[in-house]
User: Fold this.
Amino acid sequence: MGWALIAALVDIPLFARTTTHRDSQLGAALVLLRFLVAVPVGAVVGGWLLRRVPAGVITAVGMVLAAAGFLWMAQWDADSLDAFTSNVPLAAAGLGFGLALAPVNAAMLAVTTQDTHGLASALVVVARMVGMLVGISVLTTWGLHRLHQERAADPELGLTELAILQEQSVFTGAAAAALLAAVLALVLFHRAPTREVDTAEALRSVP
Assistant:
């Protein structure tokens, strides 16, 4: 999850700054806001579903939704953010990440004793942060590798075209990471008794 999440936080505004908001950092940040507003909505929905649906299923659905959003973003070109439809993958990805937040925390709380819940919740945050640090390094390296490949294949490509190719590669890598997270959630959480975890407690554990 951390791998995919950092790609959204860094490369969505970067893509906006590269294309439609070249002269406005605020405009690029507002594009990311379209993603961010969907996250708390997904978090509340994910917490509500915990009493009815296994944590692994909720997390997997959220991560598949995020992957679909990233795959759509990987097809963006220089003018894509001008279209209203660009809001769809941003909202879908944000909703997907939100859906996955509470179930992950609930799964950890369900398999640890009450006196270690604080530490368990902290470890979830640490794991996500480590994933984000590693993810931004790996995905950026991969994106730059693709940039240099394309530049070698076609020296006539301009800076904007190369930057778009690099960011498209990052989005594709983020989609792959989200799909892997979906599979891991189904495998790792299938026995976690999350329906016994209080929804409010699971949501309070979300950073």
About this structure: Residues 117-153 form the longest helix (37 residues). The mean pLDDT is 88. Residues 100 and 202 are 11 Å apart (CA to CA). Residues 2-204 form a domain with the Growth Hormone; Chain: A; fold (CATH 1.20.1250.20).
